[in-house]
Amino acid sequence: MTQKRKDILVVGFALFAMFFGAGNLIFPPALGQAAGEQVVPVIFGFLLTGVGLPLLGIIAVSKSGGDLESLASKASKKFGRILACGVILTLGPLVAIPRTSATTYEMAIAPFFPNFNPIIFSAIYFFIVLVFVLKPSSLIDNIGRVLTPILFVTMITIIAKGIIQPQGVLIDTGINISFSNGFSEGYQTMDAMGATILGGIIIAAIRAKGYTKTKEVSQITVRAGMVAAAGLTIVYGGLAYLGATAGDMPMELSRPALIIQITNNLLGTFGQGLLGVAVGMACLTTAIGLTATAGDFFSRTSNGKSNYKVVSITTAMVSMGISNMGVDRIINFAEPILLILYPMIIVLVALAFLDKHIKSASVYKGAVFSALFISVMDVIGTFIFPIPMMTKAIQGLPLATQGFGWLAPSIFIGLVFYLKDHYVNYTRKKVGYTH
To answer: Are 191 and 301 found together in one domain?
Structure first.
């Protein structure tokens, strides 16, 4: 094997670890269980946002300066800063970090120590997080390097056992669940948002290995991303199938409880314990990385006015409070936030691949702000208070019933500004030629 291929595999496995470490394995089994016979289109939708979009996000930010703020600043610098803050807060104290603690408690602690107080656990968990964030050590990185392979092998073992000896057959669940349900559930992985933050880190890691040519860096990024995507596809697809064959289990089981029950049925208590410990430690490494990222981001963007340690401690304290809501309530809390952020990120990623054809910021503004407006109105009408006229107008848009009401207006408005720019440029050239 050549050195280049080795580097691609190393970076690819690192990407897999980054995306898989935040407890994302709890989503596919629940999707599969609800889908039953419809598991294929549902998981395909989930893979698009849970795997495909993060891969495209890594490539997009590499084309646009290496981070989300640079990409979003193509619409406006102020918007770029605001969106980056929103994403960091979501990946940080509002959703992702609390979910790592709640997932660890529900998968690694509660099944074995049901009387252990969750508030005390979260205090211990975030104390450990702060120990590593405030005094960085290579220990946690080494733990991560060991635990990710253990977690991956454990998941493959569970999936293989579930395929060879299925728990049940695929059934018609009677639940109306489709491609769009999987697509929107993929938002909950938050990997596409993570990709826009991690893109710069990956590019820097590739350059540190001695690759300096832009084309070569881009090729390695794409191939490493495909390695990570392949691993995630195997695990997510397999877990969804396991969920689809678990139709006899109660539908009211929480997401963590479902994967725990599946693992216990297939590998017994030992397998359940191994999974819980590996997931818990992987979540811990993710929480440490995200807390440090939040501290660094807000310290840097405030030009040092917000102290790194103060931000990190605040992030941990807020995360601790939210973590005690429990996994399912955190997921419900995150839904409206993600329904607003994700359409904008999807539009920005798509435009990054068309950037060389875009002549001004107006195309970015038109497309992104259209997606933002429709998403915000839809979320207000669905989660806060009904706006009958607005809801009716949004439901009348193409693909609105599938959850993509923002798509057509975004494309249309972006195209209008694109044609306007070309018309203005054509007119200017014509006038210049005449004179």
So the answer is: yes
